[in-house]
Amino acid sequence: MAKQLLIYERAVPVSRQEHGKLCVKTGNNFSFARDVNSVPLMAAEFANAAAECAVVFAGHGDDIIPVVLLGVRDGENLFVNPDGSWGARYVPAFLRRYPFVFSSSDDGTNFTLCVDEEFEGCNRKGRGERLFDNDGERTQYLQSVLGFLQAYQVQFQRTRALTKRLNDLNLFEAMQARFTLRDGKVLTLTGFFTVNRDRLRALSAEQLAELMRNDDLELIYLHLQSMRHLSATAERIGADAGDDKNNAAEPQTAPEPAGA
User: Fold this and answer.
1) Structure confidence at residue 181 as a pLDDT band (50, 70, 90)
2) pTM score of the predicted model
3) Bridge partners, 130 (sequence order)
4) Fewer CB in 10 Å around end: N or C, the chain?
5) What are the start-end ranges of the H helices in 85-215?
6) 49-77 burial string, b = 16+ CB within 10 Å, else e?
């Protein structure tokens, strides 16, 4: 799995001076995410995302986070349709917050709202929603954006706590998945982790009870069940109208431990 690519091209702090007349027109065009094959996922999103996509873990050391798998090749999002619409029922919050994002201070205590000025929906021609009114005050739209990002930040901290607990219990296992296309080409997806079922079963009653109290156990099983979507994701290759159906992927077995 490729290192997470940023979808923000030029995110700058939002200010009355610079963005007093700025409008933002959002919609159902997710072309900005066409080149990312995974995005971070919050724990609160597991149930919705796992119904359609594979939820795995990625990162290193203490920085492992859940991600939703959107493609099996670098730089390719199989859930963005040719017209830019989203090809699933659920859109991850990481994408829904775009073109806005919080930047944090070095100590992580202060957050600044930023907007990607390269987003095609940003304009000063009155299209969409203004960030500030004629008196320079925040509009209701900007207040709702701030509320969404604040809630996202809370969920981010809760999600980091989840992955730390799983990591401390040594439940993560590096995995890889192989997909064979009908033309014989083999694709290999690496760089992700899953929860090891045997290690989970080997936990003590007290450790399992703690996972249950934190709702971690439910999230773990949502993650494990979501792995059945790996093949369905790969089968999106060549599934667009007019593409060669011989490029479609055949169903595959469960992922193998990395290095197997």
Assistant:
1) confident
2) 0.88
3) 23
4) C
5) 93-96, 140-168, 197-201, 205-213
6) bbebbbbbbbbeeeebbbbbbbbbeeebb
